[in-house]
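user: At home tonight, take the chain set out below, taking as long as you need, and be ready to discuss the fold:
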Amino acid sequence: MKLVGSKPSPYTRKVRVVMAEKKLAYEFVEENAWSPETKVPQWNPLNKVPALVLDDGESLYDSSVIVGYLDGLAAPQLIPAGGIERARVLRMEALADGICDAGILLRLERNRADEGKRDPAWMSRQKDKVATGISALATEVGRRPAGSAMNLGDIACACALLWVDFRLPEFGWREDAKLKAWIQPLEARESFATTRPG
């Protein structure tokens, strides 16, 4: 398998962490979807990373599709088989992806070369989404029983918060004691340590 992605991408990191936890062998192909020379559309017509290229050349794209596929390949199981537990894990993944989606849109708008074309209302809306997403995550992890097994929701949300740390540090989410206590053991795992974007 080949994983096409970019190291700073929280969506790519989510897949890399899952692959590390499952000890799946793959080749990492680093690509910048924003580069004029990008080859990403060869594997994802939407020109987004990550894309997983299977041994027969077929590609899967969107990180949630990829991790859903990978979860069936090897232990440990990170997505419950069904019922409300499955829905809760996938809800956490959706929350994480939503934080990242809004954060990336905020960052892109802030980085417009022409400041006069930046839309303050749009930036405020995206900033609010990131903030309320982080607040919802703090509530979510506060409800988790101590010693709960790590699942895909944890991986996705940790990747989202660590991306916010990397790209939007002003959100200061580590000041929340629940989030700080929850993420510390995740950050210490080899799968997270070896996938840092820097």
In short: The chain has two domains: 2-70, 83-189. The CA atoms of residues 99 and 132 lie 9 Å apart.
